[in-house]
Amino acid sequence: MITATPASTETATFTNPLLSGADPWIIKSEGTYYYTYTQGGSIVVYPTEKVSELGKASPVTLWRPASGTSYSKNLWAPELHKINGKWYVYFAADNGTNANHRMYVIENTSADPVQGSWSLKGKIADPTDQWAIDGTILEHNNQMYMIWSGGIAGGAPQNLYIAKMSNPWTIDGERALISSPEYTWEKYGSAINEGPEILKNQQGDVFLVYSGSGYWVDNYCLGVLKLKTGGDPMVRSDWVKTSSPVFAQNPAAGAYGTGHNAFFKSRDGKEDWIIYHARSLPNGAENNGRNVRIQKFTWNTDGTPNFGEPVKIGQDIKVPSGE
Question: Per the record, where is site Important for catalytic activity, responsible for pKa modulation of the active site Glu and correct orientation of both the proton donor and substrate (predicted)?
Answer without folding.
Answer: 134
